[in-house]
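Students often ask why we bother encoding 3D structure as a string. The short answer is that it lets us treat folding as translation between two languages. Here is a chain of 227 residues written in the first language.
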Amino acid sequence: MGDGLVALVTLDPQSLVDLLRVYDAGDGTLLWQRKYEEQAVDEVAVVGGWVITGVDGNRRVTVAESRTGRIRGRFVVPERMEGGVTLYQDDGMIYQGYRGVAKRNLPGGQIVWVSPADRRQTRMTMLDDRTLGLLPVGSQSAWLVDARHGKLMLDIPTDNQRRGFYDLAADPTGQSVHLLGFGETGELQLTVVDRESGRWQVTQLGQRDDADDPDVQGPPHCPGRWC
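And here it is in the second language, the structure alphabet:
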């Protein structure tokens, strides 16, 4: 859902291929529909006046006008990382590829910026309308990036007492960033970073119940009871 529209992908009962239907969210009117006969639809997003569909592992992208269905752009993202999350904004899509995190504009798909990142899976979170939080899972730092042009706004390193961060979010005021991680001896830690000064404060939240188990390496391969 988005822009007052609802986009649904179902299996067409006659042709047995994916069928995309776009409805007006106000009165339920069907505005347009399109069949995808060659490949199944992996993802649909409605944002900024566009309906964006991805097939082939979300590598092949089609951008259509949201209310008419007129196709305005097609492009291929060959370097997209398998299983990576895609974030959509009014002016583009942000995704993780093998060269780092990249943004492409809409509807044409031209690269706007690329931010080098670890080849491990990177957690991406929009902290506000323009700030992108990047966190390679298990890494020793996190980054805040201006989502409009890829400029680094804040580099948040850890110290030798922490194994790495595994999740991040903004506080409701937007003044700080909260990062979750584990200390050197396995204790759960919350790090609160002031976005203006870059200073942080660490709070111990508790000990992992399997911290002494040498076979447990921590997220992302951790047991569900404490992830």
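Translate back mentally: Residues 1-116 form a domain with the Lipocalin fold (CATH 2.40.128.630). Keep this in mind for the problem set.
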